Amino acid sequence: MQLVKVVALGAVLLSTVLPNIQGGLPLVVTTWRFLNATLQAYQSLTVGEFDPIDALVEGCSVCEREQCDGTVGYGGSPDETGETTLDAMLMDGTTMDIGAVAALREVKHAAAVAKYVLRNTRHTMLAGSQATDFALQMGFRRETLQTDESRAMWEQWKANHCQPNFWRNVIPSPSMSCGPYEPVSANAVRSNPPEDASAPDRTDFSFGRYNHDTISMIVIDQTGHVVAGTSTNGARHKIPGRVGDSPIPGAGAYADSEVGAAVATGDGDVMMRFLPALLAVEGLRNGQGPSEAAERQIKRITKYYPTFAGGIVVATKDGRHGVACNGMAEFPYSVADGSDWQGEVKVYTVKCV
Question: Which of 16, 139, 152, 353 gives 20 to 30 Å between its CA and that of 327?
């Protein structure tokens, strides 16, 4: 029987670092309350004796099948044309090999396709329809990613004059029209706003658990082999072709078996500009604890985008883990570790600023 322990932590304040949590190896840490995915990865690693990359794929694949929170896998986050596309990445922190897919179309198993990129090519990432062609070569099946629910979501958005959307500096006004758009004249675009201009506001997009929350996962086996990965269907109502942080090494996830790993979730268009996962891991290398490493990256982002929503989870190679977040009421993350394993997935919940 699957057990759940819920642990609440204090608010993340920019002047206060939350305590690091001491876990044990093997360890699986997952963004959000994705219990089945966390448990599957841990059992694959321990009972199944899978290697960490295979355990990572098993865990992420659970969320792809279960359509976790409607933001992982098929049938969620339709783009402006109503199509769902998928992004995924896997990183091996021992070999530093990476496999990723971006804007994958008509194939449901993004994390598994990313594993074939990692193990069967010398590339790091494949994208779009060509990634689909690759997946078909590897034996995957072409099938629609649209469901009745995702089509209804798209139709409701169209009926609401395509609000919200990701356009700016175009005509007709994207606040009142669905387009098609064309750029305004260059003279009308203020590329250098005055110093007193307000910071960019991202609150219209309502990023959070039910919009734009990647499953991001860290897996560390008993020997300290560290891997990390992601899977998502991206931002709801995105411009077709958009790719967020999830499949970008150093943005959505980063792993290094010498020190640990970090994973991110949230407003990927903002977070990928700061490579928070890479820099959090480098923070570990420089002696920071996991919570401090995560918080420093949140602070870097909020300096420029104070209203952005996102969270970062960091784990050391010996099983300590910590988190920081911004722009949401709270941020839960799920943990299975070897410190006292009795079939129990722990859920730690942090109140964000």
Answer: 152
CA distance to 19, 44, 86, 114, per residue, from 140 (Å): 44, 22, 14, 12
Q: Name the amino acid, one letter, at 156.
A: Q
Looking at 31, 38, 132, 214, which residue is catalytic?
214
Report d(CA 333, CA 138) in Å as an integer. 33
Q: Where are the beta strands (DSSP E) in 106-160?
A: 125-127
Catalytic-residue membership of 214: yes
By the 10 Å C-beta count (0-12 exposed, 13-18 middle, 19+ buried), 10 is classed as exposed
| pTM of the shown model | 0.91
Mutual orientation of helices 110-120 and 52-66 as an angle, nearest 10°? 150
- The b/e string for 17-34 (b: 16+ C-beta within 10 A; e otherwise) is bbebbebebbbbbbbbbb
- Using one digit for the tens of pLDDT, what is the confidence trace for 228-278? 999 999 999 999 999 999 999 999 999 999 999 999 999 999 999 999 999
